[in-house]
């Protein structure tokens, strides 16, 4: 019984850590893609650089908020499992 609970808690902690890592990787890839595409767009139309940069910053901020929210959820799961033990 105790071994089953500890094993389940270990899997939950491991899942929370893996989830936080996947969130960080996804956010990095998303922001990198946005930056690359924005630079390409600015190179094609330099006169629209202000609009492109503004849109890029807003989208990057939204990605950061979503990734921060997901990482906090993973940490809350880990803390709740640690309290149960």
Automatic annotation (TrEMBL):
Keywords: ATP synthesis, Cell membrane, CF(0), Hydrogen ion transport, Ion transport, Lipid-binding, Membrane, Transmembrane, Transmembrane helix, Transport. SUPFAM superfamilies: F1F0 ATP synthase subunit C (SSF81333). Pfam families: ATP-synt_C. It is a multi-pass membrane protein. The chain crosses the membrane at residues 12-34, 55-82. The keyword Nucleus does not apply. It is found in: Cell membrane; Membrane. Gene3D superfamilies: F1F0 ATP synthase subunit C. The keyword Cytoplasm does not apply. InterPro entries: ATP_synth_csu_bac/chlpt, ATP_synth_F0_csu, ATP_synth_F0_csu_DDCD_BS, ATP_synth_F0_csu_sf, ATPase_proteolipid_c-like_dom, F/V-ATP_Csub_sf. PROSITE patterns: ATPASE_C. The record marks 64 as: Reversibly protonated during proton transport. Residues 14-77 form the V-ATPase proteolipid subunit C-like domain. Key component of the F(0) channel; it plays a direct role in translocation across the membrane. A homomeric c-ring of between 10-14 subunits forms the central stalk rotor element with the F(1) delta and epsilon subunits. F(1)F(0) ATP synthase produces ATP from ADP in the presence of a proton or sodium gradient. F-type ATPases consist of two structural domains, F(1) containing the extramembraneous catalytic core and F(0) containing the membrane proton channel, linked together by a central stalk and a peripheral stalk. During catalysis, ATP synthesis in the catalytic domain of F(1) is coupled via a rotary mechanism of the central stalk subunits to proton translocation. NCBIfam families: ATP_synt_c (TIGR01260). Belongs to the ATPase C chain family. This is ATP synthase subunit c. It comes from Algoriphagus aestuariicola.
């Amino acid at each position: 019984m105790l071994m089953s609970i500890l094993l389940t808690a270990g899997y939950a902690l491991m899942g929370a850590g893996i989830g936080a890592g996947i969130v960080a990787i996804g956010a990095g890839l998303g922001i990198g893609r946005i930056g690359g595409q924005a630079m390409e767009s600015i190179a094609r139309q330099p006169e629209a650089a202000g609009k492109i940069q503004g849109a890029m910053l807003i989208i990057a901020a939204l990605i950061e908020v979503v990734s921060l929210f997901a990482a906090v959820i993973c940490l809350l799961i880990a803390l709740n499992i640690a309290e149960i033990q």
